[in-house]
Amino acid sequence: MTAVTEDARGEARAQREAAYVEAGLWDDERLGWLAYRVAREFPDREFLCIDDLRLTYGEFTSWATAIAADLVARGVRRGDRVLVQLPNRVEALLAQVAAFRIGAVSVPVVPIYREHEMSHIVADCRPVAVIAGEDTATRQPCAEFDRHLAGAGLDGTVRYVVGEASVPGWAPFPRRPDGPQDDTGLPNPSNRRRARSSCTRRAPPRRRRA
User: Fold this and answer.
1) Which helix or strand (DSSP H or E) is residue 147 part of?
2) Which of 176, 89, 162, 87 lies closest to 129, judged by CA?
3) Helix 141-151 and helix 115-125, axial crossing angle in degrees, nearest 10
4) Distance between CA 156 and CA 143 in Å, rounded?
5) What is the distance in angstroms between the CA of the first residue and the CA of the last residue of the chain?
6) Which residues form the AMP-dependent synthetase/ligase domain (predicted)?
7) In whole angstroms, what is the distance from residue 158 CA to residue 169 CA?
8) 160-174: per-residue pLDDT in tens?
9) CATH of 30-186, one of 3.10.129.10, 3.10.580.10, 3.40.190.10, 3.40.50.980
10) Using CB atoms within 10 A as the burial measure, which of 5, 118, 123, 161 is most buried?
């Protein structure tokens, strides 16, 4: 049996990508640019509303830019994994967009996963940065992550805590900036095409069986 070389794999991948583009399934827009493109066109249009918090597209991307800049300043680079375990709150979405903006890999994890699952996830994905919530009545996420990261030999991992608490070894999640933030100095997003959802395209009509 002939071994498949890396060159052959690369050629096959390039052919598949070209076929997706020709079929209109992929385009050249990168995930890290999506929110920013809309913000340039409609900066003052409301983007989201969560409880009493309302953000326009411009305000949201400015906040994401501040987070992205902080990640870069702390050593996070393109291709690095940023693990996020938060409930449904704006910081979870901001962290994902910030990671996309600098070409990092967002690793969102549902909050119901506890120590058993998280120990495997941390060891497998080996995150360069972790974003977690503050302590609750039933859980201490930061302490749990400290144990998982130490067990995986990842003591140098960047750590952010979302909330009002001050946790030793954990940086506070970047606050909402007072004004617009310039993202021109940030690294370019990864060269990953955005796959259009095929379910949004009209499917061909089914044929009835005779």
Assistant:
1) helix 141-151
2) 162
3) 50
4) 15
5) 45
6) 37-147
7) 9
8) 999 998 999 999 999
9) 3.40.50.980
10) 161
